[in-house]
Design goal:
The chain has 167 residues and is α+β, with helices and mostly antiparallel strands. The protein has a single domain, classed as Gcn5-related N-acetyltransferase (GNAT) (Aminopeptidase), CATH 3.40.630. The chain has helices at 13-24, 28-38, 91-105, 127-130, and strands spanning 4-7, 42-50, 53-67, 70-82, 110-114, 133-134, 142-146, 157-159. Strands 1, 2, 3, 4, 5, 6, 7 and 8 form an 8-stranded mixed beta sheet that branches. Helix 1 packs antiparallel against helix 2. The longest helix has 15 residues, at 91-105. It starts with a strand and ends in an 8-residue tail after the last strand. The structure holds coenzyme A (COA). Residues 23-24, 79-82, 87-93, 115-116, 118-119 line the site of coenzyme A (COA).
Length: 167
């Protein structure tokens, strides 16, 4: 049965928390999602639903980003999860594609992720593109994607993760 991807609603909150608990094996991501919502930073939040159950979730939030003194409308992709047992069937990929479409529609210029270096590049994320962005992260797992070509061009940039991430 194919899943349906739709915008998350407040009624989904408990199912989303249960999914994140199952996929990540802890409370950290559950807390991040709740704080991002509470702080009004959510730009895109989608769920994948199958037979009335929430089996996937992705959240994109506004991430203050400045490059060479100019402000860039960037989003952080975090967290995302697919129910264990249903992973590696393409659901995560379809969630990302749908979320990037909505991010574009919301006027975002770039998306930043800290994630599996073997996974996100297939959607266009690149560690090289994130290299000039000062952040608590660096290396292969810190990746960026431009929704608007050239949005991340420049000499020196920085991203400021909101306190919701608890860094
Ligand atoms: C990451 C996740 C959301 C992907 O969802 P999915 O529906 O399995 O993704 P898809 O079916 O579109 O793609 C499968 C790919 O995910 C990648 N992947 C999944 N888990 C991975 C992991 N722990 N490390 C590296 N790659 C991983 C695999 O490379 C796989 O690629 P393959 O097709 O070459 O085997 C899902 O595996 C998940 O919920 N994992 C646990 C929570 C998590 O780690 N979230 C991401 C934080 S960055």
């Amino acid at each position: 049965m194919a899943e349906m991807i739709r915008t998350a609603t407040p009624a989904d909150a408990e199912a989303i928390a249960a999914l994140n608990r199952a996929a990540f094996g802890g409370e950290e991501e559950v807390g991040i999602v709740e704080r991002l919502r509470g702080d009004g930073l959510v730009a895109v939040e989608l769920v994948a639903e199958q037979g009335g159950a929430i089996i996937g979730h992705i959240l994109l939030s506004w991430l203050p980003t400045v490059i060479d003194g100019r402000s860039v409308k960037a989003l952080a992709l975090a967290p995302m999860a697919v129910r264990p047992g249903l992973q590696k069937q393409g659901i995560g990929g379809r969630l990302i594609a749908a979320a990037l479409d909505q991010a574009r529609a919301a006027g975002a210029q770039a998306v930043i992720v800290l994630g599996h270096p073997g996974y996100y590049p297939r959607f266009g994320f690149s560690a090289a593109l994130a290299q000039n962005l000062a952040s608590p992260f660096s290396g292969d797992a810190f990746m960026a994607l431009e929704l608007v070509p050239g949005a991340l061009a420049g000499q020196r940039g920085s991203v400021s993760y909101p306190s919701a991430f608890g860094l």
